[in-house]
């Protein structure tokens, strides 16, 4: 089974670039008028910095037109007075933690650790920092692009963290029905941070994380699980919602602790409607919650 947990303010679609998008240029100008003038004089496209946003970039062309590159999701973020291209490629820091090359919310992921409990991943800094914990030791993760895989965090269970442009997704990959029965009856995830005080779930199953004033600081899409084989092209995935309980309590200091208890439907995992049970009991299930 693969169970994925997405934790972010938003989970954008993949960026799409028009087929005739202009090529990037090193020439830029603050305003549209100055960019048009510079483009005419240089004979090259000139970027218009005042029109740049997280999802859009515009250029003045030598023939007096404005061309734009529009993306479906954020592809850059503001850092001081400059725009930084988002790069979700994971790398190890000197202290052993993992982080993307360039992430708008400062995502940090745990390296190997022996402690029985600790942070798995965190977003933001200072008062805006939100962290998700994991109960249990962690091996050194395998890094591949924007994914970090902790192999065998439990027998037959891998843990995967995938960096996204607005946060991260968490997957628990359960390789057999036996492992699912033994380890996936309930999964608890602790959320901590100065701005974490409460959480609630709407009718669609989406989770909203709020501070003590009720302001939303993060969210999670509806918890789901699905069939791995179908996801790999052998039919449409059978998706099943995952039940979720939420508790909040005060912990030492000024922080609150919100714990999410995810409860996969054991009848569904063992039942005939899950297509692996009647043919291959070790066929993985995929899920997202």
TrEMBL record:
This is Sporulation and spore germination. It comes from Actinoplanes campanulatus.
